[in-house]
Amino acid sequence: MIYEPSVSAAVIFFLFVGITLGISFWLGRKATDSKGYFAAHGQIPWFVNGVAFAGDYLSAASFLGICGMIAFYGYDGFLYSIGYLAGWIVALFVIAEPMKKLGKFTFADALDAKFNSPGIKLAAGISTLAVSIFYLIPQMVGAGVLVQPLLGFPHWAGVVIVGVTVILIVVTAGMVSTTWVQFIKGTLLVIFSAILTLMLLAQGFQTATGGNDKYSFRTFGPMSEELDEEAIARQLNATVVAPDGGWAKTQVRGYVRFQDNETGRISTWSYRSNKAADIAEGADVFLDEAQTVGSDAARNVLVNGEIKGKEKGEPELHPVGHISKLPGGVDKTGPVGPLSFFSTLQESEIVLWGNQKVKEADGTTTTVYFQKPTPGSRVLRPGEHPKFKGIRSDNFIGKLNFLSLMLALFCGTASLPHILIRYYTVKDAAAARKSTIVGIGTIGFFYVLTLYMGLGAMTSGGMDVTDSNMAAPLLARSMNEWLFAIISAIAFTTVLGTVSGLILASAGAVTHDLMSSYFNIKMDDHQKVRVAKIASVVVGTIAIGLGILFEGMNVSYLVGWAFSVAASANLPSLVMILFWKGVTKQGVITAVVVGMVSSLGWILCSADSMEKVFGMSASDALVPFGQPGIVTIPLGFITLVTVSLLTRKPEKSVAV
Amino acid sequence: MQTRNTRMGIILFAVYLVLYGGFVLINTFSPESMEATPIAGINVAILYGFGLIVAAFIMALLYGFLCDSDDGEASSTEDDQ
Q: Which residue in B31, B40, B81 is closest to A381 by CB distance?
C-alpha cells in the first residue's frame, strides 16, 4: 500500500512524542548518581510503578503484534495475550517478594546475593544482554512499522529514528525518567485502546465486497460444471496467460492469469474450493480475484501486474478486510454489545487473505495474496494460524511446539531483565507487590481489548495484506485520521519506552555485572554512569541494525523467542535460589549458560531462522519445531540440580 | 524463606497453574472442545480466555489482601556497592 503522510497526523504525532520526552527529561534531570540512574532511588510510588510495569510490558509486540495476528488469523493471536498475562502470576506469586529482598540493581545481583561470585555475575550479565538484545529486535521492527504509514518514511528510517531517540533518552535520563515515560504511555495506551474498542462496538459490522478504497474484488462462480477459463476471459476482455515458469509448478493451489486486451495488465485469480482437480469431481468452484506483489526484469516493484505508484491514485495494493455474510442475511448490524460482538462474528463469514510465493527461474518471486472466505466460527477458534495449525493435526510435534510456546510465555515474564529491574524502583516488598497487582489489572484489561481491536481490524477494510504488524494503527486510521495519529504516537512512545527499559537493563548488566564485578574495575558513581551511557549507545546501535534486518516478521512471534531465551536461561536459577538451599554457584553458572546457549542454538537451527534469517529452505532445520521452551527450560533445571549436587561440598572455596 | 506470604503465593500459583494448564492442554489435545458455544453464542475459547485474564486479576487482589503488609523483614535498598 502507499502511505501518504498527512500533516495534521504528523503534527499530533510529534506533539505527543515531544511532550512525553520533555517530561522525561524534566523528571530525569536530577538522576546523576548511579543509584538514581539505575533504580530511581527506590522512590517511585507503587501505583506509578504498577502502571509503568504495564508500560514496560505492553510493548510493540502486544499492541502491534497481537492485534495484527488476530486481524489476520483470528483467535490465535489472543493465545499470546493469555500467555503473557499468565506469566505475571509467576512473577507476582513466586518471584516478586524474594527478588525485592535479595537484590540491588540487576538480576545478576539477585542471583549472586548468596554467593558473591564473579562467575555468576558474568554469566547472568551475559544472559541479560542476550535476552535484552533478542527482545529489542521486535521492538525495533515495530518502530519501523509505525513510522511508515504515518510519515511515509521507509522501514529503516523508522528504526533509526527510534534508535537515536532512545539512546538520547537513556543517555540523558535514566530510570526515573523512563519510569515516568512508561507511566504516561501505559495510561494513554489503555485509555485510547478502550476508546477505539467503544467506537468499534458503536459502529457494529457491515458486509462489503472489498476494502475501504471502495474497490470491490470480483468473484466468478459457483461453477459446478467444467470451469471455462476462456469464457471468463472474454467477459473480462482479456486472454488467458499460459501457466509457464513458476506458475506451472504451483499445483498446491490453482491460479489463472488473464492479460487485459487493452492495457496488457496481468491480473491473477485463484480457484476456491480447493484444487483445480476438484473441478472434475463436480464440486462448487469459484474463481476469486487475487492481489500480487512481484518485480519485473528491471527490478521495478509490480503490484497487481502494474508498476507500483508513489502517490495516491497510482497503482497500489487494495486495502482488505471485509465481512461477506452477516447472520440473518442483513447488510449492517448497527451498534453491538461487548458480547454480541463475538456472537455476531461467530455466525458471519469473513474474507481472510492467504498468501503463496511463486518463484521464477530467474530468481524473481511473485507473492499471490488470495481471498479465503472463512466462517466466523473458525475465525474464533484456536489453530488457524500456520504456527498453531499443529494442534489440529495428529502430528505430535506440532502439538509439542504449541505446548512449548505456551510454557515459554508462562515462564518468560518473570525472567525478563527489564521487568525484574522494575522491582528495585519501589521502596519495599509491599510496594513491589502492590505495583505488580496494579500492573496485572492494567495489562489484563488491555489484553481483553486486544481481541476486540484485532477482530475489529480484521473487518475494518483497512488492512495491508503484506504486513500484519500494521493492523492496529490501520484500524484507527479506518475510523478517523486524528485517532490514527494519536494511536500511532502512543505506539511509538510504547516502543521508545520499552526500548529504553531494555537498553537500561543491558547498560546495568555491563556496568555492574561485567565491568565492576567481573573485571573488578573500581569506578566511582560518575564513572559508572558514564560507562552505562557508553554501553547504552553500543547496545542501541546493535538494536538498530537488527531491527532493519528482521523487517516483516510478525513481532509477536519474535517476542515468543525472547521469552524462551529468558525463561531457559534465567528462570531455573531464580526459582531454585529462592526455594532450594542446596544450590551452588557452579550450579547457577552452568544452568544460566546451558539454558542460554541451548535455547539460542535451538532458535538458530529452527525452520523459521533457516528460512527468514539465513535464506535457506525450511527443511534444512536441525530441530523438529520452532519453540525451544519445552526442552530447554527443563534442561536448565536439570543442569542446575545436577551440577549443584556434584559440587555441593566446596561451598567456602575461593571464588573463580 | 518460608514465610506466610511465600506459602500463600505458592498455593495461589498452584491454583492458577491448574487453570492455565487446563486451558493449554484442552487447546492442544482437544481443540474441538474450544468451539462449543455454551453461553450467549460465545465459544469456549473466548470464555475460557477471558476467564483466565479475570482470574489472574482476582487472584492477584486476593493475594494482596491476604499478605502481611510487612513481612517482618526490612528490604535491603540501603546497601550500595
A: B31
